[in-house]
């Protein structure tokens, strides 16, 4: 494994950083998160489940483990009604402890994460919104985190407020928006969003969640164009949805009829992720991970695709032959014939659902 160094030092040296996968959706499927408000009280209620998922991502090659603190602002917890006897501080601190415990089993960094707030949508009060971010930041700073990520923001303005607060910590800050190539929910184009974030102090900018790798790569390319045009520098980051969303609509998968309980039919294959990792790398993106729907085998696929650039394979590859090589000893000749890259790269997988359409009409259209 690479030595444990600061995230910026590694990105400045041109290293590939493999992010982790989706926590919230995966833990909902495993019975530890309640769909709807998607709050992370499982960090306190079921730490063994959170720890295990962190461990799976680490074994798959993740260089960064994000704290399981999505939607953990006090206003969101109160609104959800999911938590009555656990505070946001308890969740944030437990999330930090779990991420650090597992990260230290390997060589991973820990990112303290904040996300969008109901407060911003209700009143746009900068002081109130920033106070929520500061409270979370202070809780993270009591623990041994390595850097911050402001993630899953639909509005560049709110993300910039988060960045401004987090930068007061003196730590590196990444910021990702859950936007499409159309821009944020205020209509701000991706390039201008990126400029807004870098001027606020973000060291790493990009997108996460809501849309598939194809759409997210397109959006990050537009962000890079905006930064280049403005003469600004910032490392690029991408953590897309683990589902196919060719509709490429403004609000992403939450407007699809399959959201959130029938998304499995859209799940990316590991070979889709190989393609994604290579395209992201070729686009100049060096922090490459996944969000909702990305499981450990997807993260392993990123690690395997970029093994030459990284110089090693993850521990999980000990149980996985590259490009199906493990099938060479199969008893059936037609399965043995699939032990080659050409087969999997060119496969057009069937859905097994003859009455289902290939695309849907999003509710936001």
From TrEMBL:
Subunit structure and binding partners: Homotetramer.
Keyword field contains Lipid biosynthesis: no
Cofactor mode of binding and number, as noted: Binds 1 zinc ion per subunit.
One GO CC term on file: cytosol
Keyword tags: Metal-binding, Methyltransferase, Transferase, Zinc
Domain Hcy-binding span(s) in chain numbering: 5-306
Superkingdom to which the source organism belongs: Eukaryota
Residues that hold Zn(2+) according to the record: 209, 291-292
Function statement: Involved in the regulation of homocysteine metabolism.
SUPFAM superfamilies in the cross-refs: Homocysteine S-methyltransferase (SSF82282)
Annotated pathway: Amino-acid biosynthesis; L-methionine biosynthesis via de novo pathway; L-methionine from L-homocysteine (BhmT route): step 1/1
Cofactor(s) needed for function: Zn(2+)
GO biological process terms on file: L-methionine salvage; methylation
Gene Ontology MF terms: betaine-homocysteine S-methyltransferase activity; zinc ion binding
Protein's UniProt name: Hcy-binding domain-containing protein
